[in-house]
Write a structure and sequence with these properties.
The chain is of the alpha/beta class. The strands form 2 sheets. Strands 9-8-7-6-5-4-3-10 form an 8-stranded parallel beta sheet. Strands 1-2 form a two-stranded antiparallel sheet. 51% of the residues are buried. β3, α1 and β4 (54-56) form a beta-alpha-beta unit. The protein has a single domain, classed as Alpha-Beta Barrel (TIM Barrel). The chain has 9 helices and 10 strands. Phosphoenolpyruvate is lined by residues 32, 58, 62, 114-116, 137, 167, 202.
């Protein structure tokens, strides 16, 4: 179902009125975790003014340590939705457990399956059984074929609204958080009709490397770019060190729009 043999025309996925695929550039931005209410409204205003069209933030966080901040749960979902919708942006947030799909669907316009859960087949089947758009991130040790087969789980349950995301894979060089596999973008477009976006924030882990990798993703044909933005990275509840400041996001956003216009 994911292959272009089955479906030669590229799919367009509608996320609360924002189209992903078919030449539209999705600009997804927001903090790693949903935080204080006033901060969510402020960041939403800033990224929306810069051109972002989908707001992000995690309310259920898949953390390495069980003692690290785990997210604000349902209260976080509400804050994300209210702040995003107040600024005209649909919202995407991660769902980490099949038992949470129902509550996340209540607030979110798009469900994110994180890299750590790419092959959580019970979760894939559950999101496949609803009609919400799904952002499926590539696992950090997954091949492109593994990613496409995970999309197949969702599609085979009847949910056709799947967008893929390249967010970096494990490399040997610890100078970057992950290894940004930009070749996954044209490869997915060769093999599949599904849209694919890039996440240079998790791929690099370094704010100074994000703009170049965002532009590389667009040049390679990505249908969108996902970037973490925080107005005070030092106090962020997660992934502060990789966050762009709102003004840095505004600069890369205008460059991304200019490049997308040329293609
Ligand atoms: C995230 O988007 O904040 C996240 C946890 O991403 P990933 O699953 O790609 O690590
Ligand atoms: Mn993050």
């Amino acid at each position: 179902l994911a292959s272009r043999e089955a479906h030669p025309d590229f799919s367009i996925v509608d996320v609360g009125g924002v189209k992903i695929g078919g030449g539209n550039l999705a600009m997804i931005a927001g903090p790693c975790s949903v935080e204080e209410e006033d901060r969510m409204y402020r960041i939403a205003e800033q990224v929306s003014a810069a051109g972002a069209n989908i707001f992000r933030g995690g309310a259920f966080k898949p953390r390495t340590s069980p003692y690290a901040f785990q997210g604000l749960g349902e209260e976080g979902l509400k804050r994300l939705r209210d702040a995003g919708h107040a600024h005209g942006m649909p919202v995407v947030t991660e769902v980490t457990d099949p038992r949470l799909v129902e509550v996340v669907c209540k607030y979110a316009d798009m469900l994110q399956i994180g890299a750590r859960n790419m092959q959580n087949f019970a979760l894939l089947n559950e999101v496949g059984a609803c009609n919400h758009p799904v952002l499926l991130k590539r696992g950090m040790s997954a091949t492109v074929n593994d990613l496409l087969m995970c999309a197949e789980y969702i599609l085979s349950q009847g949910n056709a609204n799947v967008v893929l995301c390249e967010r970096g894979i494990k490399g040997f060089d610890t100078a970057t958080r992950n290894l940004f596999d930009v070749s996954a973008v044209p490869l997915v477009h060769q093999l599949s009709h599904l849209p694919i976006i890039v996440d240079p924030s998790h791929a690099t882990g370094k704010p100074e490397l994000i703009p170049a990798c965002a532009m590389a993703g667009i040049a390679a044909g990505a249908d969108g770019v996902h970037i973490e933005v925080h107005d005070c990275p030092e106090v962020a509840k997660s992934d502060g060190p990789q966050a762009l400041l709102p003004e840095q996001y505004a600069e890369v956003a205008s460059q991304m729009k200019a490049l997308a216009e040329l293609l």
